[in-house]
Amino acid sequence: MIKNINKKTFALILIIVSMAFLFSACSKKQSAAKIKYIRQIEQWHKKRIANLKKENGWLNLVGLFWLKEGTNKFGSDKSNDIIFPEGTPKFIGYFILNNGNVKVKINNGLNVKNDDKIIHETELKNDLSGNPTILSYKSFRWFIIKRSDRYGVRLRNLEAPLVKNFKGIDYYPINPEWKVQAIFEKYQDPKILYIPTIIGTVEKDTSYGILKFRLNGKEYHLNPIEEDNRFFVIFADKTSGVETYGGGRFLYVPKPASSGKTVIDFNKAYNPPCAFTKFATCPLPPKDNYLKLEITAGEKNYGHGH
Predict the structure, then answer these.
(1) Whose CA is closest to 86, among 172, 159, 153, 184?
(2) pTM of the full predicted structure?
(3) How far apart are CA 220 and CA 212, in angstroms?
(4) What is the pLDDT of residues 43-95, one digit of tens each?
(5) Which of 271, 59, 58 is nearest to 169 (CA)?
(6) Which residues, other chains included, contact 242 with Cβ-Cβ below 8 Å and sequence gap of 6+?
(7) CA distance 88 to 142
(8) How many helices (H) and strands (E) in the chain?
(9) Three-class SS of residue 43?
């Protein structure tokens, strides 16, 4: 009888020990996966900061000037229609806006360049052309942007103080629980999204379906826009205007497999350019993309925003 009890006890001990090893192995595996994921998000964030500091990033913007139809004189002198900052010539030349076409004429003796060639007169392609004409003078760069029916001059300074003094962006602790499963359900007919912008215009875009996901037992949804073989989402939540930028945040989501399943990773929610500079023309969340919960993941507001 004692032997039988000992055998049973021994077997029970073996089971307990085996289970302990199993749980320990699972725990270590989960911990390793979590550490790997956190490092991936940290690398993503480092790349994000590096992109902000690039020549075509958002930190070096120092001006946005809307053109009027006809002649627009520009330079740093206050008598110009468009006043560039100090460090540029007093009288650079003038832009001519004529029914959506923009030309520039540069005054003699100035080293204003396009593709390293000094120019005197040229037609300017805008940013929506996909290949805007970029002019340069020393550390300054400028080109034409088109927003709705408005045309403007976007000015960069590669030596802008914000680039030199930028310390990074605060973000919430990286939490894998904010990487949530989602289902994409196609609309029978595509939905037109009316997207307001920071400059007071309203842009139209198309959403071909809805992203549905669950958090804390409740279902939520977002209307994405297709962009570069992935989904682009502009959203706001209860942290907007408190801990995060008041104009919402941006997020990319992988397009779903044939099953409709995809993943929304809110740890990659990031600030629009307007969180850093008043010279951007950011879209704002469409009314259907206001989430009635706190998304405590991703980037927090930068400074006081704009």
Answers:
(1) 159
(2) 0.86
(3) 6
(4) 999 999 999 999 999 999 999 999 999 999 999 999 999 999 999 999 999 99
(5) 271
(6) none
(7) 12
(8) 2, 18
(9) helix
Which 8-state DSSP code applies to residue 236? B
Domain boundaries, the chain: 61-165, 169-289
Q: Are 140 and 46 in contact (CB under 8 A)?
A: no
Architecture field, domain 61-165: Sandwich (2.60)
Q: Using 50, 70 and 90 to split pLDDT, how confident is the model at 8? A: low
Bridge partners, 264 (sequence order): 180
User: E strands of the chain, at which residues?
Assistant: 61-66, 70-75, 82-83, 93-98, 101-106, 113-114, 117-118, 121-124, 135-137, 140-147, 150-157, 179-196, 202-215, 218-222, 225-227, 230-235, 249-254, 261-265
What separation in angstroms does the CA of 158 have from each of 83, 163, 228?
18, 8, 28
Which residues does 223 contact at the CB level (< 8 Å), separation at least 6? 191, 193, 207, 210, 211, 233, 286, 288, 289
Residue reference for tokens 């929304």 = 264
Q: Is the distance from CB of 74 to CB of 80 less than 8 angstroms?
A: yes
The amino acid that residue 227 corresponds to is E
Check: CB of residue 59 under 8 Å from CB of residue 276: yes
Residue count of the chain, please give it.
306
Q: Quick check: 232 and 250 in contact, CB under 8 A?
A: yes
Tokens of 261: 């399943």
d(CA 262, CA 264): 7
CA R_g for the chain:
27
Please say whether the beta carbons of 283 and 275 come within 8 A: no
